[in-house]
Sequence to fold (125 residues):
Amino acid sequence: MKRIINTDKAPKAAGPYSQAVEINGTLYVSGQLPLNPETGKFVSDDIREQTEQVLKNTENILKAAGYSLADVVKSTVLLKDIGDFAAMNEVYAGVYTENQPARVAFQVAALPMGALVEIETIAAK
Fold:
């Protein structure tokens, strides 16, 4: 059975989608932007700080669904500028310190609201 996940510890969905959907022991977390859930604004214009916020939002959604970062099996990282890859990767590596998930990273033409990074996540039990 499909279960919709929503938490106020991550930014509200800005369109017709859910923060996450769980089905058959797999959690699909929508792409997270570097928005502070309390203010609805970006934490900064720094790629490291934006990546930290994205991962914090992701972790809060995982927790709300009864998952943890250790359950993450795949991430898709979207970057406004691939030149930010090393800085993003440094922050990412500090969160996923062992048994890292599979991952892909792309540079895209633009991200919503002018974000520098967005990360989509899949977790499984």
